[in-house]
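Hi L., both proteins are below.
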Amino acid sequence: HDGDRLAHLSDDALSVSELRARAANLFFKQTIDGWKKGYAALERAVALSPNDGMSLAMRAQNRLNWWSVGYEPHDPELAERLAHDLDIAVAEIPKSDFVYWARGAHRLRMLGDLEAARFDMAKSLELNPNFLGIADLKSQIAMLEHRFDDAISAFDNYTRLGSEDPFKLTRLAFFARVHLCAGDFQAALRDA
């Protein structure tokens, strides 16, 4: 496992791709300490290669998640900075399902721009119909539009594709909220 091979090395000793691998490994552990260390690794990756699209997208996604879980107030400067990084990421690697998904998540969650999020979701889906994040993004859009049956249907695709997803707990909590909004209290209780 590549992450294990690099575990004893400091961030300063790693290449951009190794820093991204470290950040992903730490992020998937789903701990606050892991997220902080992963963000530091991505900061170093961007310092080494300021236009590296994947590093920019991963750093933006990490920061967006911090913003979300911390229930931080809207910050126009942060929103603009993340949008800038994600636009560069899309320009640098336009064949990446992840960068479109990350930009779509930013546009949806931080900007509330459903049409732009829908565009990025479609691009990500075009590149990889099985990308797990799409089911999550599609479900969130449908819920915000009060199309609860569509949100449930989109989320059913997630459960079919993502049995080993490290974000399963977070996504199931979201799914419980979808069921609550749809008035299906038994299903909400089951998913909670």
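That was the first. Here is the second:
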Amino acid sequence: PSDTNAYIATNGAQYFDTGTPVSYDKEISITAQITNGASARLYGTIGSSCRYDLTVDAYGELQFRIGTSNYGKSVDGSNMESKNTWITRNHNSGPTKKNIYQNTENKKLAQMNSYNCSTNDNIFILNNDWSSVSNTNTGVKLYSFKIWDVNDTLLRDLYPVKRGTNICGYIVPIDCLYDVVNKQVLLPGGSDS
């Protein structure tokens, strides 16, 4: 992307379907900024017991969950009001453990087990599917989102695109995401898209 400071702002009611099914061996990087501090789902599945998600809870902590909903890890949520990149990478022993980093792979926040489960549910970005956090009007700025498979193959490389941008003759009708890997536009869903 030509503008690494471009972002999509959301109030908690919008989401993007990555089209990529969740599995415990995926690796994810998200660059985002929380703008009002309320509970928020930065990414995750919708309605699945096989979770792979990053949320901000009501106490301002980051919650990573991989596998069933009962397995999660709270990590330091400081500086969420600034632009940050959170990364989950497979541990060098394999994808059954995840290392969680902030901004650089030199700053490890936590390590957790990755519980093996599978589902056909896709990974959604900026979705709130819990009744306790849905429609919280959470302010989030999304700068980028990437997904890798277990072989380190980049599956999605998503960046914001402004309404009116010409992509190979297609005029983007609304602020959205562009996938550099698959050369496709992801339009938002949700009540305020």
